[in-house]
Amino acid sequence: MKFLLRAILLLGSLAWLVVCAKQFVGFGILDNLGVAMDHPTLLIQTFIALIILRSAWMFGHEKRRPF
């Protein structure tokens, strides 16, 4: 069950990042980085997707204590 949850979280956050990246490219972020500040909701969505991706990536890699 953990594997399925982790796979769904990884795939979902990766897809979310791709959508955000396409929107940023459509707004012209490659020409002007200041465009990101004009769209704070998209910037927040990208940040949340990165947090989900990082947490899902580390979900199965907890350090085990010997005792």
Automatic annotation (TrEMBL):
The chain crosses the membrane at residues 40-60. It comes from the Bacteria. Keywords: Membrane, Transmembrane, Transmembrane helix. This is DUF378 domain-containing protein. It comes from Shewanella nanhaiensis. The lineage of its organism: Bacteria, Pseudomonadati, Pseudomonadota, Gammaproteobacteria, Alteromonadales.
